[in-house]
Amino acid sequence: MAWGSGKMNLPSHTVTNGNVSVDSGHARLNELGYKQELKRDLSMFSNFAFSFSIISVLTGITTLYNTGLNFGGTISLVYGWLIAGAFSLFVGLSMAEICSSYPTSGGLYYWSAKLAGPKWAPFASWLTGWFNIVGQWAVTTSIDFSLAQLIQVMILLSTGGKNGGGYEASKYVVIAFHGGILLMHAIINSLPISVLSFFGQLAAAWNLVGVVVLMILIPSVATERASAKFVFTHFNTDNGDGISSKVYIFVLGLLMSQYTLSGYDASAHMTEETKNADKNGPKGIISAIGISIIFGWGYLLGITFAVTNIPYLLSEDNDAGGYAIAEIFYLAFKNRFGSGVGGIVCLGVVAVAIFFCGMSSVTSNSRMAYAFSRDGAMPLSSFWHKVNKQEVPINAVWLSAVISFCMALTYLGSEVAFQAMVSIATIGLYIAYALPIFFRVTLARKSFIPGPFNLGRYGILVGWVAVLWVATITVLFSLPVAYPVTSETLNYTPVAVCGLLILTVSAWIFSARHWFKDYGS
Fold this sequence. Notes:
The structure is a single chain. A hairpin with a 2-residue loop joins strand 1 (about 15) and strand 2. This protein has helices spanning about 25-30, 45-55, 55-70, 75-100, 110-115, 115-160, 170-190, 195-220, 230-235, 245-260, 265-270, 275-305, 310-315, 325-335, 340-375, 380-385, 395-410, 410-415, 415-440, 460-475, 495-515; strands spanning about 15, 20. By secondary structure, the protein is mainly α. The chain has 21 helices and 2 strands. A two-stranded antiparallel ribbon has the order 1-2. The radius of gyration is 23 Å and the shape is globular. Helix 4 packs across helix 20.
């Protein structure tokens, strides 16, 4: 299936073949020029479960709660979540509509190729694919690294806390934890998809039940609770970072919500393993975002009602060393029962959710690497897209784990470099989300042929809202987060994202444009 043909294949969502019933996703995959190599065994719930466990509100909110508290406090947390959630839903709806028409493991980069038209297809596909895969690797790095940090905080609290002579792990120990976690994730992801599907469903259940338990338990146990007025109206301008503009502070506080609400492209990457993927893939994307918004808001409210002293929670001199949610959990139990053990157990519930989140993230990474190398875009492509006897892209799984470990090694050199790496996780990934949507509302405005799930006449409007939101957050998250700006306080996000853009475009100009032309074998 060469690009040169110019005509797009029309989706005819066939479900019968003579008298034999054929899966509509399988039929559509064949129409798109690919043969079924992965085992198609996932239900709609399993597909949803992978995206839901990568969004994992327990992971994102727990890890970045400090950011929200510091920049704007409870207002940033409570309202920022709803704003980021609403716009993420626009992005998700547009992605779901495209996913319904093109249910392949490649997801975003394949969509860009199809929607950009024959002239731009190879370049659009190349750019989207590299932003997607590097963004995904950065997501896995940051998820597993945040778990390593949480384990370190749990050990600190278990050994007496910062003020009681507790054990504070060095950064080398934290990196060793990170490596161990990635190793476990690679081993689990080497198992057949039926086993992985079970883990994925368990992860979704754990996230749902964990959120409900913690949002009720923590404020119930806490001896001091915030008033509703404090939770819904308190604006914290005391950030110690030299920023006084309320709008600016609120915008920086949005990062927590936006970072959490990402990763739902997993539903698209799992479509070649999902039954009736042209219908169930889109449902997976939308339900994962919608349910995450509701449960995430509940979790945020529950935890925030246990917040009374923001400066103390953010202080590095508290028992958790400045890890706000860990301190909230620990204090709630210590003040009520004289011991913080219950709080450490609650942190364990979050740690398991983060573990599942990283596991699903490696699954999604490996499917993307499998598809991208199947289309010849990666060095040593033929090696990375090999599938083992259990129909698992095993080499792509281990590649993803190794690269995520290497990305985390920047932490040993400089925390600033590590933060830049993590920023690609939000911005790089969202740019990859926006590119196919942009082509859908511009170049393919008239030629796009929707699948069974479509937005009808609202498709273009929803698409433009999604594209403009991504453009807005790309600018917002590149702004300085502290003044005066020094080499220590500089926000390296634009440096990291522009670096990735320059590398990708250079590789295209000097090499890839000569050979990355056809795909679909």
